[in-house]
Amino acid sequence: MFGSPRMRVAAVAGPLALLLAACGGTSGSTGHASGPSGDPVSGGVLRAVLVSEPHNLDPAILQNNNRGQALLGNALYGTLLTNDPETGEVSGDMAEGFTTSDSGKTFVLTLRAGLKFSDGTPLDAAAVKYNWDRLKDPTLGSNSIQDASLIASTEVEDGTTLKVTLTRPTPRFGGNVILSSLDWIASPAVLKNGAQAFDADPVGAGPFALKDWTRGGALSLTRNPSYWNAPKPYLDGIDITFSSKADQRFNSLQAGGADVSMIEDWGVVAKARTAGLQVDVEPVGGGQYIALNQARAPFDDLAARQAVSAALDLDALNLAINQGNGEVADTFFPKSSPLYNDIKLHSYDKAKAQQMFDQLAAAGKPVSFTFTTFQGSEKIAEAVQAQLSRYKNVTVEVEVAEWADTGRILGKHDFDATVAAVTFQDPDPAVARAFLSTSPRNSVGIDDGRLDDALKAGSSTAAGDARKDVYTTAVQRLVELVPGIFYQREPLVAVAGTKVGGLDLYGTGSLLADGLWLSK
C-alpha cells in the first residue's frame, strides 16, 4: 500500500519497494519552479493553452505526455498512479497499492475505498478491468496499446482489488501505467454509449468535469464537487484553448492572456525565464530524435541512415531551432545516471556524408525522402532540409501534420522521417517501447536480436553493474544501426504566470490538475 495520497513508494516495506520502483532516476533535478507563497487558496478559473485540440475525449485516445492532452486527461479522469519526476519513485493516487510478489509476472491493484465517478456511480475494480481490457482493442487506435498488450488477463477479486497477469515478467510495469492511458479510468457505462455520446458528457473520477466544448476553439472544465481527494481541486474550473505555436503560447502567458502552458521549444523556454515566468523542467534522459523508417526506402538501407546522420551538424540545428539554448543529447544517459556510459550518439562528418550520398547515387539509390513533422515542430524539419540542401544526391521534402495525428502516423509507420522521442527517468519501459522489435510502438521498424536481448535483460535485471552492462550494449547497437538521430534532450516543461501555484509534473511531463491554484 502506498499510504496517504501521493506518498512515495519508498514508504513500502520489504522487497516490494524495489519492485514498485518503476523508474530509477537518471538525471539531476532542476527542482520545481517557485509559485506564490502560502497555502493554496480556493477559487478562480485557470486559463491553459495546450498544443493541440483532441479529436475526442476518450481516455484511450488522449496522449499522456507533455505535448499531448495530459492536463485534460488528468483533469477529467484523475490518476491511478503518479511518480516523482526527480527520483522516478511510484506513488499511489486513486490506487492505494500496486504490488507484485513474483518479480513482475502478476500485480495486485488495490483501489481506495469509496471512489466514485462524477455521476455518482462507483469507480471499482470492474471499471479498471473494463478500461484496461478495452485498451487492447486495435480498432481504437490508442497509442497505449503496447502497454495494455503486456496484460494477459485481469481478474476482479473484489470491489477494490484487481489481479493483473502480464504476458511476461515486467517488474517496473508501474512505469507503463504512468506513461500511458492505463492511468485514466472512465465510466464503462458511458463509454458503451458510443463516441459521440461520450464526447458530449464524458464521465471520469477526476478533479474536473466537462462544462462545454466548442470544437475548433475552446474547452471548459468545471470543478467536480465529489472528487475523492478534498479539499482538492482548488480551482473552480479550467478554460483550455489551443495553439500549435510555442511562441504564441509564450506571448499569451507574457501578456497575461493565459496562466499556464507546455512549451516544447528550448528557445522559448529561455525567453520565459528571461520574462520572469515560472518554468518547471522535468529532468530526463534519452531525447528527441529524427526517426528514420527502416520499413521502407530509402531508410531500409543502413548506408542511407548513416549518411544523413553524418551530414547533420547538431550544434547548428540547436542554433536554428533553439537559438542555441537547447541541450544536445551527446550521450543516451546523462552523467548523473547510474547507467551512464560515454558512447557518443552522433558524429558529424561532412566529407564522409557526401561520399556516402555519392556512393548511394552511383548504386541507383539517391537519397530522397519526405520529413513529416507536426504542428509546433516545423523548425527541426526545415533546419534539416536546409542543412541537407548543401549536399549533392540528397533531397528532402517537408510536410506538416496535426499533432493529434502523431499516434496514427507513428503507429502505422506512415513516414520516411519524422520527429519522435524516447524520454525517461529510467529506460524501462520507454526504450523497449520505442526499439524492441515486437513493440507496437517501434515506429522505425528496427529488428535486431542483440538489441532485443539487451532491452529484455534491462527490463528484468536488478539495478547494478549487470544492468549497466546490458544498457551499454543497447546504446551501442542504437548507435550502430541508426534508427534515429538524437538531436536534443526533450523539453518537458510547464510554464506559468506568477500567480499559479501547484505546478506538479509526473511521467513524461504530464501536468497534474488537482493541485493547481491561483493566488488572489
Characteristics:
17 helices; disordered N terminus; 22% strand; 520 residues; alpha+beta; 5-stranded mixed beta sheet; 7-stranded mixed beta sheet
Walk me through the topology:
Layout (H helix, E strand, L loop, with lengths): L15 H5 L24 E6 L19 H8 L3 E3 L6 E3 L2 E5 L6 E6 L13 H10 L10 H4 L2 E8 L2 E6 L6 H6 L9 H4 L3 H6 L7 E7 L3 E6 L13 E6 L3 H10 L4 E3 L3 H9 L3 E4 L3 E8 L9 H10 L2 H9 L27 H13 L4 E8 L3 H11 L5 E8 L4 H6 L5 E8 L2 H9 L13 H12 L4 H17 L2 E5 L4 E4 L3 E2 L3 E2 L3 E2 L5 E2 L2
Parallel strand pairs: 1-10, 1-11, 14-15, 14-16
Antiparallel strand pairs: 2-3, 4-5, 5-7, 6-7, 8-9, 9-10, 11-18, 12-18, 13-16, 13-17, 19-22, 20-21
Provide a quick synopsis of the model.
With 520 residues, this protein is an alpha+beta fold. It is 29% helix and 22% strand.
Structure description:
By secondary structure, the protein is α+β, with helices and mostly antiparallel strands. The strands form six sheets. A seven-stranded mixed β-sheet has the order 8-9-10-1-11-18-12, with helices on both faces. Strands 15-14-16-13-17 form a five-stranded mixed β-sheet, with helices on both faces. A hairpin with a 3-residue loop joins β20 and β21. The N terminus is likely disordered.
- Tell me the span between the first and last alpha carbons: 37 Å
Q: What is the C-alpha radius of gyration, as a whole number of Å?
A: 22 Å
Q: So what's the overall shape?
A: globular
Helix/strand/pairing category: alpha+beta
Tell me how many strands there are: 22
Portion of residues in helices? 25-40%
Mean pLDDT across every amino acid position: 90
Uncertain ranges: 3-32
Share in β-strands: 15-25%
Side by side, the strands of the main sheet go 8-9-10-1-11-18-12
Tally of helical runs: 17
- Give a quick account of the main beta sheet: strands, pairing sense, barrel closure: 7 strands, mixed
